[in-house]
């Protein structure tokens, strides 16, 4: 789901999100609701419902990815790719652990090289789709600040049979770590460190 400013009536399958005081209001042709939940949580729910565009109005500058997906929204999207020939979906979810090498983690921060990030995600999806029996692949990697227990990355692979998804799923994160231009900083209770720097020590 793409995150945009203002509102464009020409966009189909879109939802308008406005903020007044401490409440968030969501409105579309099929939906009208108000909530006090965090904006990030609201966006993930809307992505799960299948919205393609979310227009923000009345918010101060917020540090959000220009695109938001949930596990449910990725499953819906991958099923659009030859699902009639398939009978299995394999899922990998990576999330933030509380302890790393004996240090207590507060959060992770991911930075990406934006000019090629989306293109590289599509390339990795195509690599995984080249495995025998695989008909659909969707990957979503979050950026910015991610707290302990929150999800980082989703990999959804659809295959003709369950045996077709195990190998690409097990190898997916090694390909992502090798090919995707994204860098991780670990923030601890007593300091911080880029993971690249830690590996060199």
Automatic annotation (TrEMBL):
Name one process (GO BP) from the record.
Mo-molybdopterin cofactor biosynthetic process
Please indicate which superkingdom the organism of origin belongs to.
Archaea
Pfam families (alphabetical): MoaE
Q: Which InterPro entries match?
A: MoaE_sf, Mopterin_biosynth_MoaE
Q: What is this protein called?
A: Molybdopterin converting factor, large subunit
According to its UniProt entry, this protein's organism is Archaeoglobus sulfaticallidus PM70-1
